[in-house]
Description:
Layout: E1 2-5, H1 9-26, E2 34-35, E3 40-41, E4 50-56, E5 59-67, H2 75-80, E6 94-102, H3 111-125, E7 130-135, H4 140-146, E8 155-157, E9 161-169, H5 173-178, H6 184-189, H7 195-203, H8 207-216, H9 218-224, H10 226-229, H11 242-249, E10 253-257, E11 262-264, E12 272-278, E13 281-286, E14 292-298, E15 303-304, H12 306-311, E16 318-321, E17 325-331, H13 332-341, H14 343-385, H15 397-412
Parallel strand pairs: 6-7
Antiparallel strand pairs: 1-4, 2-3, 4-5, 5-6, 7-9, 8-9, 10-17, 11-16, 12-15, 12-17, 13-14, 13-16
Domain N-acetyltransferase: 1-168
Protein name: CRP-like cAMP-binding protein
Pfam families: cNMP_binding, FeeM
Amino acid sequence: MEIRIATTPEEKEEVYHLRYQAYVEELGWRPEEVDDANKRLHDPEDETETIYYVMDGEKMVATCRQHFGASRLDAKTRAKYSLDKFAEFPDEEFGFTYRLVVLPEYRGTTVLIRLLLRVYEDVWKKGLRFSFCYCRPRLINVYERLGFIRYKDNFLVEEQGYMAPMLLVVDDAKHLNAVRSPFLRTCRQFTPGTANSEWFARTFPGMRECIEMQFLDPEEFLKQWAEALEAPTTTLLQGLIPEQVQRLVSEGAVMSAKAGDTLLREGEAGHEMFLMLNGMARFIIETPDGSKAFLGTASTGEVFGEISLVARTPRTATVQAITDLEMLVVTQDFIRRAMKAYPDIAIQMLFNLTVLLGLRLKNTTERLKGALQESTKLAKVLATQSKPRVERPMLTPDELIEANQVTIQHVHRPTPGA
Length: 418
């Protein structure tokens, strides 16, 4: 495989088509710049920033774009990444990675690592101190293993969904060593200092340490979430002994959210599910008339998002955080790794997931039956009330008396043969 920088119009056009394939056709995203007629995704920043791509023979299999701090950043970018906290550093020392795409058949291979390692080398050569990006929940684990740190609250990107902001302190060799990052060897080649990592530790206390604990001490990680992982409602992990749970969660990543955050949106693409470690979330759907309908809640130990994980279908409901919460992100890659490394654990977890889906289907069927019964009752009532009334002509007083006499005579007339 070969990593290149796109410089010719032909190279860039192939990158734009690859983006369209991933973002629009696969994920269903609709950025403002999308060109459906030509099946390409291009924006003005492509003219000034560096576009990397990976070739496997004659096939382009991955790409990303890198900003190297050559120009001042706009207010929107500064707010998104909370750059006010980095005010003592010039914009020229910030880097940003965007538009990362890897073809489906190359995910889980070394392609992503190779591409980002090349970018990291260039980041060092350009003299950047901090490299920023944001990612979907399913990629948090990947970026944290590279050495990136979640340093601020998540945010919602309109066309992409709920994202986790990530930061790499470029010369933080100590942290790269702690998480066994593939960037470490390159970092040591450039003789890293300690000033930037010490500044980060003072400005964002505890952010780095919680990640290091997660990677190096799964036993402590398990103790921290024991209540959630052992709760009766945690059907996903039932039947697993503590040692198996410990192995399993060491492969995952924990994601935090603030009360009011929209975690998932109805209709968007998804490839992960979430195990609630603490807090509460609610499910909402949009009705045909455009109003919102409340479906239910999820709390400690419960799972949501499992349908998209299994079937790769769009999200069936919007999920909002009612309280601050934390979730274990369970991805398809997570399950595949478990199937290879711990098949007994993966089999039990997949069985539990099957049971969970069956229970969800049963509950949904019962709700539909109840709704159908209510609908049938209502239809009968409406049908009765809507029968046309027969309009009778008004009778005069003499006609009314005569009619009553006829009726009386008819009622008292002797029955023949009695």
